[in-house]
Specification:
The chain is an alpha+beta fold and 296 residues long. The chain is built from eight helices and 15 strands.
Length: 296
């Protein structure tokens, strides 16, 4: 029987990934009767040319070892190629991995999924000429993502601390967006578009959002009085956002964030802070666009 060729993309630039001996995990848990493994380590010595050369080699499966950022970087390059992507979710947030059934930092469980090789196509969100898989945000979460990015140690405690610190500096932001030909304006503390139901750490705003329904879920927190925020936060924590009148949400297949100030706009995608060009941001769903290896 011919073995399947499998490439592990290991993000050693992430402090969380470096805690694991991935080559040893492969030796222990990968079914080598089925798979012939290769590794590529993302580190300070890796070049863009090497990355592209490796990805352009014929593979039967590619494994993202890291978190949401590692998967996003890899998945964007494989959008139009029929190569299934598996995950060993040992990053900080692991939002999309959790959404499709992986347990974060469960190495044995991840390799069980790889060995079984059960695949399922997820929706992808396109933002201008780029993509994201889990969520887009402007406002509070984008600022927290920027703070979190530069931290050497990443954990739920650090994420929570940074969020609470930012809450005490909350300022409402005017966001204009367009659905079809109709324009809207909202004053909000955060504005999110979800393809899945999580930021990471099993935290999200809309528990019913799904990467399998061909829809984008939009939610924003209105600039209400400060005393109403604890209740809104509680509703989010217990996954009952519909109980808070401060949260507005709806579904769409396409939405445009209007750059009405003609300045670069700060936002985050899958926990990665970004700056836009001086342009509008058009976000649309691409149904069943990316093949993932998922747990049974």
């Amino acid at each position: 029987m011919n073995k399947k060729r499998i490439l592990f993309i290991v993000n050693n630039l992430s402090g969380t990934v470096s805690q694991y001996n991935i080559p040893k995990c492969i030796d222990m848990f990968l079914d080598t009767d089925k798979f012939d493994p290769s590794l590529l380590f993302i580190d300070a010595q890796m070049t863009e040319e090497l990355y592209e050369t490796k990805l352009n080699t014929p593979w039967d499966m590619i494994v993202s070892v890291g978190g949401d950022g590692t998967l996003l970087e890899l998945g964007q390059r494989l959008i139009d190629r029929n190569i299934p992507i598996a995950m060993v979710p040992v990053g900080s947030g692991n939002g999309i991995a959790t959404h499709v059934g992986y347990t974060p930092r469960d190495i044995r469980g991840a390799f069980d999924a790889i060995n079984t090789a059960n695949t399922k196509a997820i929706d992808v969100a396109q933002i201008n000429d780029q993509y994201f898989f889990s969520n887009f945000g402007m406002g509070l979460d984008a600022k927290v993502a920027k703070d979190f990015k530069i931290k050497k140690k990443r954990s739920l405690f650090v994420y929570a601390f940074l969020t609470i610190r930012r809450v005490f500096k909350l300022k409402a932001k005017i966001i204009k967006y367009k659905l079809g030909e109709k324009e809207y304006e909202v004053s909000t503390y955060l504005f999110n578009i979800f393809n899945s139901n999580l930021y990471g750490y099993n935290i999200g705003l809309l528990p019913w959002a799904s990467a399998f329904d061909g829809e984008l879920d939009v939610v924003y927190l209105k600039s209400v009085s400060f005393w109403r925020l604890p209740w809104a936060s509680f509703c989010i924590l217990i996954k009952k956002p519909q109980w808070s009148s401060a949260l507005e949400f709806f579904t769409t297949k396409e939405i445009t964030i209007i750059n009405f100030k003609n300045k670069k706009m700060g936002y985050q995608v899958d926990g990665d802070p970004k700056k836009s060009k001086r342009e509008d941001l058009t976000i649309k769903v691409l149904p069943s666009k990316l093949r993932l290896v998922v747990p049974n």
